[in-house]
Amino acid sequence: GEAMTSSQIYSKYGDCVVSVNIETPQGEGAGTGFLISEDGYILTCNHVVDGATAISAVLTDSTSYEAELVGSDEDLDVAVLKIKNAGDTKFPSVVLGDSGQLTVGDSV
Known about the structure:
Blueprint lengths: L5 H8 L3 E8 L2 E9 L5 E4 L1 H4 L4 E5 L5 E10 L4 E6 L25
Antiparallel strand pairs: 1-2, 1-4, 2-3, 3-6, 4-5, 5-6
């Protein structure tokens, strides 16, 4: 398909961005992530949640949810979180591209 402009991406997926807030024995931290499924999975950076004893995800409407770490990879600096106790809430989520459709030289 056609490449989307930055403003088109923001317009379509802005509500999928979440603030990731953490507590650690040393204090608090924060970062961002984005919802990748309507049932509350979040993709973020591993360094955002590394060492967290508690994690919360705050949506663009300021709703806050407790989240848990599902998995992470320190070398790739990625982590997957899951929103807990969301009931039947359906979250907005991004559509991930298929890297198998890319060729050398494509803009990503």
